[in-house]
Write a structure and sequence with these properties.
The protein has one domain (22-136): RbsD-like fold (3-Layer(aba) Sandwich), CATH 3.40.1650. Helix 3 (50-57) runs parallel beside helix 4 (83-96). Strands 2-5-1-6-3-4 form a 6-stranded mixed β-sheet. It is 31% helix and 19% strand. It contains 5 helices and 6 strands, in the order H-E-H-E-H-E-H-E-H-E-E. The two termini are 27 Å apart. The chain is of the alpha/beta class and 143 residues long.
């Protein structure tokens, strides 16, 4: 156990976050996400919701300030979107990040394509639809 690091951050996840560089992306995926068939390394966090994991990651992780640092899936035609999912994520983001980082919504299949190039995918216990969140790592300030 380390001081100052959330208990939701496993040793494996901490190592992944430390190895990521500027512009690398990590997916915090819902329980339905096909992470194991997409390709990059997959970590499991089955007992955690995405917002809990985000709350543990953001104190350790600088979001990219040169590009859109957050992406979520856009709702598919004929489907419904629960606005509370994004609201929950935004509340955690506001707690840790100055300003209001841009969040884009991208087509489901475009999201899957982005995920193929991600540094890692963390599959959580999140069961709400469209609960996937992509984070793009930025440069850690020196001062």
């Amino acid at each position: 156990m380390l001081k100052g690091i959330s208990q939701v951050i496993s040793p494996e996840l901490l190592a992944v976050l430390a190895r990521m560089g500027h512009g690398d992306e990590i997916i915090l995926a819902d329980a339905h996400f096909p992470g194991h068939s997409i390709g990059p390394q997959v970590l499991r966090a089955d007992g955690l919701m995405v917002a809990q994991l985000l709350d543990g990651i953001l104190p350790l992780f600088e979001l990219d300030s040169y590009a859109t640092p957050l992406s979520m899936m856009a709702v598919s035609a004929g489907d419904t979107l629960d606005p509370e999912v994004e609201a929950d994520y935004r509340a955690v983001i506001r707690k840790h990040v100055a300003g209001d980082p841009k969040l884009e919504r991208i087509d489901r299949f475009a999201f899957y394509e982005r995920a193929k190039g991600a540094f890692a995918i963390v599959i959580t216990g999140e069961v709400r639809k469209y609960g996937n969140l992509l984070l793009k790592k930025g440069v850690t300030p020196t001062a």
